[in-house]
Write a structure and sequence with these properties.
Layout lengths: L2 E3 L6 E3 L1 E4 L8 H13 L4 E4 L4 H10 L8 E6 L1 E4 L2 E4 L3 H14 L5 E6 L5 H8 L2 H11 L3 E8 L2 H10 L4 E5 L30 H13 L2 E5 L21 H9 L4 E7 L3 H8 L6 H4 L1 H6 L25 H12 L6 H9 L12 H5 L6 H11 L2
Parallel strand pairs: 3-4, 3-12, 4-5, 5-8, 8-9, 9-10, 10-11, 11-12
Antiparallel strand pairs: 1-2, 6-7
Helix pairs in contact: 1-2, 2-3, 6-7, 12-15
The protein binds iron/sulfur cluster (2 copies).
């Protein structure tokens, strides 16, 4: 298992994580088997957004004796009322549900205290200027949460969070289909039967979000990495071409700032299937060729940092230079930290001999030679 730093939290999390949602449909022994398999495979982060009491208790029982080996991403505002999940900002219910989470998980702290599911900008403002954030701050001051996070599907809200300063990490939905979509406050839009035919490539708001997160040290954990499974068949995929789980994982894990993908597991075999990513070949991870040649919504002209253009005879890490260039282009002046990163590369854009080999290999038709010239200018 490879581990990545979750931005400024400093936590080193496994790049494959456990999304707890599917555990709701399993008994205690089955939950134990999944969690034990995760631990054996080196997975050390789990998300529990669910408020359902049994699944919380089953996860808590399964973590007995191994709590310190895990980072728990637990949600604040996910409550259980009259036998149902209810997202709320009403503090009495929020407090009850959070204390219930601690009790059932058999712990006195949650590593990542997530402000649960905020998809509206107006609601983000209400939360960050009201009693809800005061409650969250109190939890942190009391050591009941170690870090403050936020979960959202809307890149506009995620950007507000990334720029706020107090939110240390974000749980965000990332996959190649959602990445084409304009921001929306309605999650069902992402699962529409058909997308606007003109869509293709990563929306600028999303590309900017990932760059801002990286720049601000706001790590991302990923949900909906498989778009609910719809990317696995050509019929269901908006691209008209199927991606594999490994390709979806690779797509999410090659976005800037992403530290871990929370994958829903039903069984130890599902854990093994996702962890196969760790030993997959470059050909197996290759989402780029599928997206570039898809019958619908093909990505083109935009660097996805896939790395297909390698090898470069000048030794340039072209994907990295492109990533740093995109970051530099977001601001009027190239920040010193970015310049330092660029200058630390063993070869950089100035070493480009314009051989053109990368452009023939890039499945997205990125004009690499002119991008290298742009990078020279940006970092001169
Ligand atoms: S230039 Fe093309 S091949 Fe290289 S990282 Fe970007 S998208 Fe991938
Ligand atoms: S054109 Fe430049 S960046 Fe591309 S492979 Fe050749 S030397 Fe490397």
């Amino acid at each position: 298992m490879r581990y990545r730093s979750l931005g400024k939290t400093g936590l080193m999390v496994s790049e494959i994580g456990l999304g707890g949602e599917w555990l709701e449909r399993h008994n205690a022994a089955e939950v134990q088997a999944v969690i034990d398999r995760c631990a054996e495979q080196g997975i050390n982060i789990l998300d529990c957004w669910m408020s359902e009491p049994n699944v919380r208790a089953n996860i808590g029982a399964a973590l007995k004796g191994q709590r310190e080996k895990w980072y728990i991403q637990g949600h604040i505002g996910s409550t259980w009322q009259n036998g149902q999940y209810v997202r709320t900002r009403a503090l009495p219910q929020v407090q009850t549900a959070f204390e219930d989470l601690l009790t059932r998980m058999r712990t006195d702290y949650i590593d990542l205290g997530m402000i649960h599911f905020v998809d509206e900008k107006a609601e983000f403002a209400r939360i960050m200027n009201g009693e809800f954030i005061d409650y969250v701050r109190g939890l942190k001051a009391a050591g009941k949460i170690r870090h403050i996070g936020l979960s959202t599907h809307n890149p506009d809200v995620a950007r507000l969070a990334a720029e706020h300063g107090e939110i240390e990490m974000i749980l965000f939905s990332i996959n190649p289909a959602f990445d084409m979509m304009p921001p929306t406050e309605h999650i069902d839009d992402y699962f529409a039967e058909t997308y606007d035919a003109s869509l293709g490539g990563i929306r600028p708001e999303r590309a900017a979000l990932y760059q801002i997160c990286e720049q601000n040290g706001v790590g991302i954990t990923v949900m909906k990495g498989y778009a609910g499974g719809r990317l696995f068949t050509a019929e269901q995929s908006p691209f008209g071409a199927a991606l594999t789980p490994v390709q979806c994982l690779h797509y999410a894990l090659t976005r800037p700032a992403v530290a871990s993908v929370m994958v829903g597991f039903d069984s130890p075999a599902h854990v093994d299937a996702a962890v196969a990513y760790e030993t997959a070949s470059e050909a197996e991870k290759d989402y780029a060729t599928v997206l570039a040649n898809a019958p619908h919504h093909a990505y083109s002209g935009q660097c996805t940092y896939c790395g297909h253009c390698a090898p470069c005879p000048a030794g340039i890490d072209i994907a990295m230079v492109n990533k740093l260039l995109d970051l530099a282009k977001m601001q009027p002046e190239t920040p010193a930290s970015l310049r330092a990163h660029y200058e630390s590369l063993s070869a950089n854009a100035a070493d480009c001999i314009a051989c053109g080999g990368c452009e023939t290999r890039c499945p997205f038709g990125v004009p690499v030679v002119s991008r290298m010239q742009e990078a020279v200018a940006a970092f001169k």
